[in-house]
Amino acid sequence: MSVTCGVECMVILGCSRWAWKRCTYIGSDDSATWPLATADEFEPVPRICRLILAIYEVDLRNPQFASSGGYRLNPDWVVKRVTYEQTLGLAPPYLIYADHDHREIVVAIRGLNLVKESDYKLLLNNRLGMQMFDGGYVHHGLLKSAIWLLNQESETLKRLWVDNGSDYKMVFTGHSLGSGVASLMSIIVVNHGDRLGGIPRNKVNCYAVAPARCMSLNLAVKYADVIHSIVLQDDFLPRTPTPLEDIFKSVLCLPCLIFLVCLRDTFIPEGRKLRDSRRLYAPGRIYHIVERRFCRCGRYPPEVRAAIPVDGRFEHIVLSCNATSDHGILWIEREAEKALERMKESSSETVTVPPRTQKFERLQTIEKEHRDALERAVSLNIPHAVNTPDDEAPEKEVLRPSKSEGEDVPNAKSQSSGGTVNWDEVVELFFERNESGVLHLKRDTDDPK
User: Fold this and answer.
1) Bridge partners, residue 216, by sequence
2) Per-residue DSSP letters for 193-250?
3) CB of 435 within 8 A of CB of 127?
4) CA distance readout (Å), 81 to 35, 50, 53, 58, 113
5) Dihedral of alpha carbons 299, 301, 302, 304, sign
6) Which of 93, 106, 81, 82 shows the shortest CA–CA distance to 164?
7) What is the sign, positive or negative, of the torsion defined by CA atoms of 270, 272, 275, 280?
8) CA 325 to CA 232: how far, in whole Å?
9) pLDDT tens, N- to C-terminus, the chain (449 residues)
10) Which Gene3D superfamilies does the UniProt record give (predicted)?
11) What's the pTM value of the predicted model, to 2 decimals?
């Protein structure tokens, strides 16, 4: 009897301890050890959010949903706006904007529309481990959408970049569903920049706002110098390892799903999660906007923490009433703007005093942070992790078809589109399909492993 009582007490104590830890876990705990971001590196985020919000407007000259500050863009610089009717459900609506003030060409993609069946079809076009790409795993439906969008707009983007002196940055951005499409577009363009006029890697940027988990950990770390994810406090989507298709199947009972996922992941060891090459993550370097504290009411002046996490990369569900509201693009834009103003105020000094951190030194710090994250991924034996972002560059050059091999490899130009780049064929140059239709990097097929 005493033994049974002792066992019951241990079980009760264990369950109580778990419940206490889970209920007191807040979003800011994920980034508690991260350094603060600087105003220079975070400066693009609020205006990128405003560009995404502008997609929702019918007429940018007479906006209906703009905040008090407006969208702060020039309607004459909008190159193209594409609606659901034009995408035929193959991609979310998007906007191409030539920002001459900041010397950027921006492709902004809107988030999930809860009343559009085509968005759900895009999300459901996947299953765990279905799509291997660039030595890792990605979401199949989002990859197909990214390739379709590049097929449609690559000539427009190439013309804009060349006409502006081949000096502008190419920025891909999106919210929620659109963040996954933008992230995979940036990966393809980084690896095949010659198809857009020879744009180099350091001219390609991606800002994934409220990012979807769309790529495996090795890819998330490998492209952390290109992709920047923005997460507001307790946002559920970057933290939920459940596949996207399962999340939005249960959107009407999302709190129940979040609790069950939280309970399940409690019993999965950290090492097992890292060894699962099919597990998808939020991409790139992460900016975490923190505005709430434990056992404190209301919102506080937001601060932004930035890092390239490897182990413990937003793996814990936050049981919070703000888990879904923090996913909204409106809230993210407002808090990002407040955070940027606060960073500028805190760093403002007299003109005679130089800034504490020089811009060149900060860039060197970010590059070192990326190298350290890559080395950390290799040391943790994460599948397909590499030591440097361009470890595979020599192999890619070898795989380029020579004149004598032109008959055996699909031509990179589409015969039916008047010589424009067909990105499906570009992908096929470097990746091949197995019997089940999964894309594999050609280098991997020769690997004895």
Assistant:
1) 280
2) GGGGTS--GGGEEEEEES----EEHHHHHHTTTTEEEEEETT-SGGG--S-HHHHHHT
3) no
4) 38, 15, 13, 10, 17
5) negative
6) 106
7) negative
8) 10
9) 577 777 777 767 666 655 555 555 677 888 888 999 999 999 999 999 999 999 999 899 888 888 778 899 999 999 999 999 999 989 999 999 999 999 999 999 999 898 888 988 888 888 888 888 888 999 999 999 999 999 999 999 999 999 999 999 999 999 999 999 999 999 999 999 888 889 999 999 999 999 999 999 999 999 999 999 999 998 988 987 655 555 555 555 656 666 666 666 666 666 777 778 888 999 999 999 998 876 566 678 899 999 999 987 887 777 778 888 899 999 999 999 999 999 998 876 544 555 555 555 666 688 899 999 999 888 888 888 888 887 654 334 333 333 333 333 334 444 434 456 677 777 666 566 666 665 555 554 444 44
10) alpha/beta hydrolase
11) 0.81
Buried b (16+ CB within 10 A) or exposed e, 65-101: ebeeeebebeeeeebebbeeeebeebbbbbbbbbbee
Edge-to-edge, what's the strand order for the sheet holding 215-216?
131-133, 136-138, 215-216, 280-281
The residue assigned the tokens 């690559």 is: 154
Q: Which helix (H) or strand (E) holds 262?
A: helix 254-265
d(CA 239, CA 152): 32
Residue with tokens 């800034």: 355
> What does DSSP say about strands 136-138 and 131-133: parallel, antiparallel, or unpaired?
antiparallel
Sole residue written with tokens 């020769």: 446
Provide the residue type at 86 as one letter. Q
Task: Give the C-alpha separation, 74 to 207, whole Å.
Answer: 21
Task: Report the b/e string of 135-171 with b at 16+ CB within 10 A.
Answer: bbbbbbbbbbbbbbbbbbbbeebbebbeeeeeebbbb
How far is Cα 443 from Cα 46, in angstroms, rounded to an integer? 40
